[in-house]
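Consider the tokenized backbone below.
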């Protein structure tokens, strides 16, 4: 039976540690500030943004939640980002994705100052990650790394199979694993005979976005299975990519949804924001 890796507990520990660091920063006269922009009314995004706001409160980060109407124009959003780029009290800027269809997402992400890019989505920060020169870390992949570390798991020498090749999760995930000496395979929708590949994984990371996508026959006995999916099942219940009922008896470790990678994503955002505030302070001195 797979051991559950508790993301909620691990995230709570990270936030406690960050709260202490924020106390010290405040003594030095700096309160970390995070701006989160959400455009439109995607209900899932609203939940995630609320969780970010709650976490910021717990850590002592000043959060500024900006909710814009669906019909906001690209120019209006870019003007807001410019304003936040100049605001010395804001150390992190995040535009919650997905944006409504009429936005040019790439241009929006490019407009965020790389120094405030707490998602690490700006090409400059993506480049830093690629060469292992870590500043801001992409929140979800960094959360996965933190989770496996808390469970005492090292990727070194392991065959890690990442399913999904998005810029947000799959690609940066593969890089972080590679930098910790894993042998990495990235799979995607065109991969031939996916189960034959995933069955070779000592560690399987699924970031696909389809409920019950990963079934027991795709998992090597004893494997570490990390579920990055955030889906709704046929009853509207929150679930990941992994068919937990069938995979649990086979896997060695499994992260739950909810309470796995999600809370870690939020905790890593807090870590990036505190990092940004500290870096700004150091550059000023
Ligand atoms: N810009 N857009 C930007 N940055 C991000 O890092 C994200 N992501 C993804 C979607 N869009 C983004 C998030 O914040 C996914 N994501 C995210 C954040 C929080 C949670 C899940 C995904 C989360 O809190 N999950 C809870 C349950 C939430 C619920 O009840 O619906 C959990 O326990 O997994």
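A designed sequence for it:
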């Amino acid at each position: 039976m797979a051991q559950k890796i508790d993301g909620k507990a691990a995230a709570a520990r990270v936030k406690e540690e960050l709260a202490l660091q924020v106390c010290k920063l405040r003594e030095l006269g700096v309160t970390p500030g995070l701006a989160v922009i959400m455009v439109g009314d995607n209900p899932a995004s609203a939940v995630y943004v609320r969780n970010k706001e709650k976490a910021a409160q717990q850590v002592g980060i000043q959060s500024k939640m900006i909710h814009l109407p669906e019909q906001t124009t690209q120019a209006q959003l870019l003007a807001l980002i410019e304003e936040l780029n100049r605001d010395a009290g804001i150390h992190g800027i995040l535009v919650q994705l997905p944006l409504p269809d009429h936005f040019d997402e790439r241009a929006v992400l490019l407009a965020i100052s790389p120094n405030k890019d707490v998602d690490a989505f700006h090409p400059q920060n993506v480049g830093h990650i690629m060469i292992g020169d870590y500043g801001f870390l992409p929140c979800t992949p960094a959360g996965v790394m933190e989770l496996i570390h808390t469970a005492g798991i090292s990727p070194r020498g392991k065959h890690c199979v990442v399913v999904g090749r998005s810029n947000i999760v799959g690609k940066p995930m593969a890089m972080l694993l590679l930098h910790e000496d894993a042998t990495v395979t990235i799979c995607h929708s065109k991969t031939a005979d996916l189960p034959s590949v995933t069955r070779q994984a000592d560690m399987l990371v699924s970031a696909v976005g389809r409920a019950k996508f990963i079934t027991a026959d795709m998992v090597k006995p004893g494997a570490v299975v990390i579920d990055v999916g955030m889906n709704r099942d046929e009853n509207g219940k929150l679930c990941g990519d992994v068919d937990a009922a069938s995979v649990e008896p086979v896997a060695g470790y499994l992260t739950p949804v909810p309470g796995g990678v999600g809370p870690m994503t939020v905790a890593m955002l807090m870590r990036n924001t505190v990092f940004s505030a500290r870096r700004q302070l150091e550059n000023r001195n």
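The first strand starts at residue 3 and ends at 4.
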